[in-house]
Design goal:
The chain is α/β, with parallel strands linked by helices and about 325 residues long. It has 12 helices and 12 strands. Helix 9 links the parallel strand 8 and strand 9. Helix 3 crosses helix 4. It is elongated, with a radius of gyration of 26 Å. The termini are far apart.
C-alpha cells in the first residue's frame, strides 16, 4: 500500500469539490453555474484544476451536458462524504457558541437502550445540561467495531462475546447485568413453568431479533449444541414488535427480563425464566482507552459505572 501523499489535501479545493458535486447532480456545467451563482467559465476552470489535481479525467463532456467517468463516480462518493462531514463539523462547533460544553458519541445495543440508558442518561443530562450526547443503536458487534474505528467515543454492549481473536481488544468496564427470559402467550404450553432450559423452546416457532444480535447468536449456539434446529419464524427490529407478534400467536421469543417488565402492557404474555448459563449477561462500557477520552466523555463513564460500583460494594 502506498504511503499517503501529504500534498494531496493541499491540492484539493473545497469550493471546487462543491462545484463538482453540483455539476454531477445537475448534469450540466451551465445549470450548476446558475445554481451556485458563478460564471460557467469559472466552473469549467475549477473542474479542470480538480482533474489536474487528481491526475485523471472526471467528466465526459458532450453537447447535452456531462457524464461521470469511473474516476468521477468514485470522487463524487468521497466528495459528498467530505462535504457532509464539514456540515456536521460546522453544526457541532456552532453548538459551542450556543452553550454546549462537550459532545459525547455513544453507540449501544438495544438491551442497554431499552432497559437502562433512558434513566441513566436522563440523570446525567440533569447534572450536565451543557453536554450533548449523540446516541445510536447498533448490534453489539457493530458497537465494538464503531469504538475501534473511532466512530463512537463510548460503546455499551455484551463484550467480549462479540469479539473475535483477530480483532483489536478494547478496554471495558462493567455497566449492568440482565437476564434473558422466554416470553410466551399466557395460554401457551410452556407458560405453566416458572423456569425452563432453552432446549424446551426449540419445539416451537421463534420470533427473533436480527440473527447477528447477541440474543440471536446465543440462541443459534444453544440450538446447535442441542442438535436441534432453531425454528426462526420471523425477525423483527424491536422488542415491542416481538412481543406483539408473540401475543398474536406467531411464536415465542427471548428478551431481557427488565425490558419485558417495562413493556408490561403489551398483550397477555408471561415471562418464563431461562435456566441456561448464557441467559445471565453483563453489559460493559467499551473504549479504546478510557484515560485518553475527552473530559466530558470521562464524566459520562464515571456516571454510568457508578451503579455497577454500588452493586459490587453491596455484593461484597
Amino acid at each position: 500500500m502506498k504511503n499517503p501523499d501529504r500534498s494531496f489535501a493541499r491540492r484539493i479545493d473545497l469550493t471546487s469539490l462543491q462545484l463538482f458535486v453540483a455539476v454531477c447532480e445537475l448534469g450540466s456545467i451551465g445549470r450548476a453555474a446558475e445554481r451556485e451563482f458563478i460564471a460557467a467559465s469559472a466552473v469549467s476552470k475549477r473542474l479542470a484544476e480538480l482533474e489536474a489535481a487528481v491526475g485523471t479525467a472526471l467528466l465526459y463532456r458532450h453537447s447535452r451536458g456531462v457524464k461521470l467517468t469511473p474516476a468521477g463516480e468514485n470522487l463524487l462518493h468521497h466528495a459528498r462524504a467530505v462535504l457532509f462531514g464539514l456540515d456536521k463539523m460546522q453544526g457541532e462547533l456552532s453548538e459551542y457558541a450556543e452553550g454546549v460544553r462537550g459532545h459525547v458519541r455513544v453507540h449501544a445495543n438495544i438491551s442497554a437502550i431499552v432497559q437502562f440508558l433512558p434513566e441513566d442518561l436522563g440523570a446525567f443530562v440533569l447534572q450536565h445540561g451543557q453536554v450533548k450526547i449523540d446516541l445510536q443503536e447498533h448490534l453489539s458487534a457493530d458497537v465494538a467495531q464503531a469504538v475501534r474505528e473511532g466512530a463512537a467515543d463510548i460503546g455499551i454492549a455484551h463484550y467480549p462475546a462479540t469479539a473475535s481473536a483477530q480483532e483489536e481488544p478494547l478496554q471495558s468496564l462493567p455497566y449492568r447485568h440482565d437476564r434473558l427470559v422466554l416470553v410466551v402467550p399466557q395460554a401457551h404450553a410452556l407458560s405453566r413453568h416458572d423456569a425452563i432450559d432453552f432446549v424446551a423452546a426449540l419445539d416451537y416457532d421463534i420470533v427473533g431479533l436480527h440473527a447477528a444480535s447477541s440474543i440471536g447468536l446465543a440462541m443459534q449456539k444453544a440450538a446447535a449444541q442441542a442438535g436441534k434446529p432453531l425454528r426462526l419464524r420471523m425477525q423483527v427490529t424491536g422488542l415491542d414488535a416481538m412481543c406483539r407478534m408473540i401475543d398474536n400467536g406467531l411464536g415465542i421469543g427471548v428478551v431481557p427480563d427488565r425490558a419485558f417488565a417495562l413493556m408490561g402492557g403489551v398483550g397477555a404474555l408471561r415471562a418464563v425464566a431461562l435456566q441456561d448459563a448464557w441467559a445471565a449477561r453483563e453489559l460493559r462500557l467499551l473504549a479504546r482507552d478510557f484515560a485518553a477520552l475527552p473530559v466530558t466523555a470521562r464524566m459520562l463513564v464515571d456516571h454510568l459505572t457508578a451503579p455497577a460500583a454500588v452493586t459490587e460494594r453491596a455484593a461484597a
